[in-house]
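Section 5.1 Outputs to date
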Amino acid sequence: MLLRAVFSRLPLHFASRMVLRSPISALSTIARDRPRALLCSTILVQDGSLVHELPVMVRRANDLLLQDEKGQRTSSRSKMAKKSKSGGRRGPSRRIDIETDEGTAILFGSDLDFLNEANVEQLVAGLESCYTPKGVFSLLETIIVEEINSIVAVQALRKIIELENSPRNGNRASPTSNRELVLGQVVEMIVGTQDSDTLLEALDLLTRDTISPPVNPLRDRLCDEVASRIADNEMNVAQIVEAVRIMTKFRNLEYQEVVDSLWVGLAAKESEVSAEDLVPLFRSLYSFKKSRRFVHAVLDRRLDRHLRLLSGRQIADILNTLANAAIESPETLRLANRWAAAKANTVNEQDLLDLVRTWTVTRNVDPAVEKMMETHVQARQGKTRAKEVQLPSMHEYFRSACSVLLGSWVRWFRRIMACSLKVPTLIGAMMNYCESTRIRNPVILSGCADYLAKNARSLPAGAIVSIFVPFGSLYFRPPEPISGRFWKSLEDAVAYRFLQLKPNEALDVLLAFIHLERHPVRFAEKVFRAGFLDRLFHRRNLRSLDASKTKLRLFDAAMTLECPQYAGPMIPREERPGNPDCRDARLKRIVNRIHPHLVKLAGRHYVVSKTIFLGQLPSVEFYAIDAFIYPRFGPSPSQAFSLEKQHRNLSIAVLVHLPEHFCRNSSQLMGPQVTKKRHFRKLGLRVMSLDFQTLEKIIAEPLAVARYLEERFLATEEGM
């Protein structure tokens, strides 16, 4: 009995807590020659403090019990197993007793294999000589069924499917009348094999069957046999994974029920799951639906057991698999972070690169992750300093031993070799991780800045972008000891590689300069050349084109405000006002709540407006002011007002900062927000900064809101 096999094979803490939940129900009924051998039911399984309701496959009562010669009730599979001395499906001691005049002749398993395989090559050659499905069917009909062993049956099935799928087959859409009969006999011969790999191979072949309907008796028979063997603990972990993969390819709800029931085999084989099995098992996790939580818990336990044996690539593959399948896995992330803490000093660069990319996708933030990257950056800085100490002696050696030309070539070769492809890719991946997670770690960023200062001129264009742009987003300026060398090396590298940069990437680099309060005047002329603009605007994607235009406007406005040497503005001011509807719903909601308090705070001589775009700045979301306090009888905010001293500091720009406007676990604003405040102050405005999270906590208390706004009003930053 399949359900009995489930109880007998599972560990005690599972089997003792199983309860039949729902009555046994048949799978979906379709026209078949015979009913399905397996039915679907549900049981309750307690796993620690959790109780799972899981599907399970059960045999029909008519096929389940037989009467043996002693009148005892036994299953058909147990009766078949009595032919083997070991009782197992794969037992090597199979035998047949043949009565003769001289006594009983005993034929052992090896002799059976010889008889079964004696004509295998001849039969396979006959199958290969067939060029149409009808020819294969005719050949199979002339062979005695007993002569067809599992190898020939699989070859026949493969040949039939290949010929039916071949474009040269004229009868592809009209199968022969004896097709189902012959294929049914072939499948029955395959089901009788002792080799589960052969069974899975045949099931995989049926995924390419384009003649039969999506649900058909051939698939039913093989799926039932596979589920039975897994429940009887006759398949190993790799075979269970393969069975899940194949049945998932059927893309049918009926076979999905079979897949969900295969948790039984994984639970029974839990102690046999090795470190090498974990990645394939996690990849198959998305195939489970109803039993996914239970299977995930089993895999997490085995991951915990084999954690120290896994490589960084395996950990990255596991996390990537879960991220791609949109499976939330806090326990798996916790174990991965624990692995990172233990392997911080031993992980190699390739594994670290895979991990950093995975952490970026999963937005995984943990002190162990930062510590691993800090360790790598510090180790690389130490190696670089050691090389620098040895360079003078090596240089002197080459100068004394070689000519000036040879010495120059050696120095060039050393500089190229020091900048291998893997290292800048890893540095760029770490910077991308810091930017996407808003981690402003001084150790990591300083190490990456030092690397960029030494190697910028030999880096490819894409590496320069991926390493440098996050500095602007995080508003991190290089430390003073390397600041001059950093900017000189970077500007020279950008000037040398400018034509190799994509237009969008070039604007990202220039905006990063501006966020860090640097003025890339030498690149302004290149930006507004016709060739660059043609490349920038030659886009079919309208959203991408609008984003590129916005970046160009921001660059022009920033250079006009901050750089006296810039001959701008180069882009005419737009007449149309900004669109308030593009604002974040959270900002609009909180501004509406605090607006009465701001009106009261400003007094009767001032006006408080919501979502304002100033006339002297581009009408883009970047320059939107959440609330604007200005004199009642002064110029309107949409008009260009005077920047003279007597008109400065009369108006206040109120900015509400969302959590993503700050670096993680810090009060430091991100680079774009710092630039935004600086530009408003350049226009002579006072800037009042409010924290969204603080307002959310106190918004239901009017007195607390009033006190907070008054505190922030007194702390407004004066215009420049």
